[in-house]
């Protein structure tokens, strides 16, 4: 796993990079390029930078390493005290636009204030995931593709969204299951070879809140992924696909998961940008279902693997 940088060091590296890019545009000498770049940002012949490499080396390892560490928590602001109000106000496009702007130029504490207001006006945590955080992350991705915002600002915005996701999961945990409820298990993973894991983490959190026992894999190899299903009983496998993939590769992976799974009745769901743009791939590759967002995915999974079909004695 890549080295974990502190947020202050990350900003320092970004500032160095930003200054170097400004110097290049002005035609002034720049000694920074003569040295190996600590962040391993890939520069192609056209001057484009690979955002996924930075996310792989900095953001995702930092998120996973710090999850649950009380020393790295943001300051408490009493979010849980506002939950349960009868006031209802839906999250709107204006909210998404305002929140996205804050991710670029504000600290995470300001974003938490925004989320606190959403909770206070009746939004559920799941709605915040699906209707606020996910659309904001997509907008940041569009900014990057369109080159309408600074590379560093977009990356820091994604970092802050992941901080909010982590904080919500820690501050507002899912309700405990009653003794009468079954406990279904699901493993969510990015497609082998991909680094974009924010959507995977968000889907897993929504399933956790719906009563599922969830695990997440980030950037596994195909052998690592399939081994997980051979070693534990899962009712559901969830794969997120952001990049383009061949039908043959996806079909082969799904067949492998079902072949090695200790649960012969395991269901496989796929989702993400690639699936949304190519919905026919679901049937062509042998997947059992898909959904447009995390909350819809929970409903589809509940139908595919109802509680009555759970085998709790097989769960580790």
Descriptive account of the structure:
The protein is an alpha/beta fold and 316 residues long. The protein has three domains: 1-72; 78-173, Methyltransferase, Methionine Synthase (B12-binding Domains), Chain A, domain 1 (Orthogonal Bundle), CATH 1.10.1240; 185-314, 3-Layer(aba) Sandwich (Rossmann fold), CATH 3.40.50. Helix content is 51%, strand content 7%. The chain has twelve helices and four strands. The chain has helices at residues 7-26, 51-66, 93-105, 108-120, 125-146, 151-171, 198-209, 222-231, 247-260, 273-277, 281-284, 294-304; strands at 185-190, 213-217, 236-240, 267-271. It has a four-stranded parallel sheet with strand order 2-1-3-4, sandwiched between helices. Strand 3 (236-240), helix 9 (247-260) and strand 4 (267-271) form a beta-alpha-beta unit. Helix 3 (93-105) packs across helix 5 (125-146) and helix 8 runs parallel beside helix 9 (247-260). The chain is globular and about 50 Å long. Residues 1-10, 28-52, 63-68, 70-86 and 309-316 have low confidence and may be disordered.
Layout of helices and strands:
Blueprint: H1 7-26, H2 51-66, H3 93-105, H4 108-120, H5 125-146, H6 151-171, E1 185-190, H7 198-209, E2 213-217, H8 222-231, E3 236-240, H9 247-260, E4 267-271, H10 273-277, H11 281-284, H12 294-304
Parallel strand pairs: 1-2, 1-3, 3-4
Features:
single chain, 316 residues, alpha/beta, Methyltransferase, Methionine Synthase (B12-binding Domains), Chain A, domain 1, Rossmann fold, four-stranded parallel beta sheet, 12 helices, 4 strands, globular, disordered N terminus, disordered C terminus
């Amino acid at each position: 796993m890549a080295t974990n940088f502190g947020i202050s060091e990350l900003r320092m590296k970004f500032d160095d990079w930003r200054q170097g890019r400004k110097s290049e545009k002005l035609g002034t000498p720049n000694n920074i390029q003569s040295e190996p770049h600590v962040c391993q940002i890939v520069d192609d012949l056209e001057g484009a930078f690979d955002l996924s490499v930075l996310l792989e080396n900095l953001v995702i390892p930092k998120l996973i390493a710090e999850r649950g560490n009380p020393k790295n928590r943001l300051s408490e602001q009493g979010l849980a005290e506002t939950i349960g109000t009868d006031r209802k106000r839906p999250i709107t496009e204006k909210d998404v636009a305002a929140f996205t702007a804050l991710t670029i130029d504000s600290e995470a504490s300001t974003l938490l204030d925004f989320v606190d207001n959403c909770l206070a006006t009746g939004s559920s945590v799941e709605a915040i995931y699906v209707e606020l955080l996910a659309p904001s992350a997509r907008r940041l991705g569009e900014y990057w593709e369109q080159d309408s915002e600074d590379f560093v600002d977009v990356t820091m915005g994604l970092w802050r969204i992941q901080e909010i996701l982590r904080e919500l999961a820690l501050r507002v945990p899912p309700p405990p299951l009653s003794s009468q409820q079954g406990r279904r298990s699901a493993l969510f993973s990015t497609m082998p070879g991909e680094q974009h894991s924010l959507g995977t983490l968000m889907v897993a959190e929504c399933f956790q809140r719906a009563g599922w026992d969830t695990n997440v894999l980030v950037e596994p190899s195909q052998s690592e992924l399939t081994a997980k299903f051979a070693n534990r009983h899962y009712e559901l496998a969830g794969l997120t696909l952001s990049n383009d993939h061949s039908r043959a590769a996806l079909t082969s992976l799904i067949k492998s998961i079902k072949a090695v799974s200790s649960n012969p009745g395991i269901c496989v769901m796929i989702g993400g940008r690639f699936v949304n743009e190519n919905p026919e791939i679901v049937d062509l590759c042998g997947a059992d279902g898909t959904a447009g967002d995390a909350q819809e995915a929970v409903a589809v999974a509940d139908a595919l693997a109802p509680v009555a079909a759970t085998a709790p004695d097989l769960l580790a």
